[in-house]
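Reagents: none. Just compute today. Cytosol aminopeptidase.
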Amino acid sequence: KEGEEGSLHLTEAAARFDQSLSGKLSELLKISGPALKKGKSRVFYGIHEDFPCVAIVGLGKNNAGVCGAENWDTSKENIRQAVSAGCRLLQDLEVKHVEVDACSDAQSAAEGAVLGLFQYDQLKAKKKTKVSAQLHGSADTALWEKGVLYAEGQNLARLLMEAPGNHITPTTFANIIEEKLAPHVERVTVKKRSQAWIEEQHMGAFLSVSKGSDEPPVFLELHYSGAPDSTQAPLLLVGKGITFDSGGISLKPSPSMDAMRADMGGAATVCASVVTAAALKLPINIIGLAPLCENMPSGKATKPGDVVTAKNGKTIQVDNTDAEGRLILADALCYGHIFNPAAIVNVATLTGAMDVALGSAATGVFTNSDWLWQQLHRASVVTGDRVWRMPLFKHYTTQVTDSQLADLNNIGKYSRSGGACTAAAFLREFVTAPHWAHLDIAGVMSNKDEIPYLRKGMSGRPTRTLVEFAAGLAHSDTLIGCNTLGVASQD
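Predicted 3D structure written out:
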């Protein structure tokens, strides 16, 4: 760490390590060049008989903490970045086992290690060296293991999002999640609903998207029962699950269409969050819903101008078949209300407009609940995977309810203006619960070099924020109180 005048301070673990070497590490750092800046690293060889390679990484300022301007805990972010950089450096040297300094925050250190070492190379002959990372010492083992689970949850979402569309179909997606939840069968129920069930539920909006593809749709329903009181109202998570989005008849341009294999990022983060909650044994009830299908052009596909009927009876004029995510979410949100949830959070790579508005800095949140916003924001400050509140003005509602042929139009009257906001306004037409939030993750779907501890590729964001949010609710009385409010409001 850097002191106030640029002086160097070793972490506790590094100081003990240096002491065991009679100060040799400090001496080498002084003579090896300028003081280590944040994220910069050095490697020393042969200085300790048990560790052939020792990577030292700069942690930044010594007094970093929660930064109001950045909306995150700078210290935690610095640790994630530093540990990730050190682990990758050793991975490139083909080291197979790494012991990691807790840096006074074992959870953040674990997240940096596990997130930083992940790379999707399942389909390549030449793969990165597999590195096992463990905590150096034993003082913070519980926090380290918690951090590993948080990061593994995000890596599961990354794995699903990065895989090609012919490898992750609606059916294979559902099967993978079922397999991941198998160790927690005593607390989890998995229901893979078929097309016949979807038709019985009168989910006409969902079916209008899936019918252009030869791949059958699946409505994946996950029930995690972790609360001591089995009657406690659940947290409902809903994720958009378009396993490949061609745009349908409103066909997307060819450049970058391959990235639409990750258009099920909402479903991936939601399902990975349920898997992580189960692994953590969080004392909360969670229901996860993921309408899964492809959006493809064919002779059976929905045509621009067609009118379809959602589960709640509202008719929708589909003027753009590439605005399909809101259609499948509409039916899933309607269905989710039957569980009388304490809160509803839906997650979707919904609009390019969200990427234009915020880029990859934060997930856009549209919500009808100040309480829910505060819970999500608090969680994001801890994880560093930030959220930012967006408007739900009636101004946008009038733009989707002004439809020539139906109750609603699936695109706003001024299609390019406020696209993320009109999409949120559309979803709101299918929500009666008083505590609902829509997370548009289109901007954070992938990573180039913005998040230093994630390699280039699909990001799996904001899985850790969803898990931290659920954990926050699980360890407070707020959720129960919220359910009481919800019941009163619905009555």
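The chain has two domains: 12-139, 163-490.
Action item: order primers for follow-up constructs.
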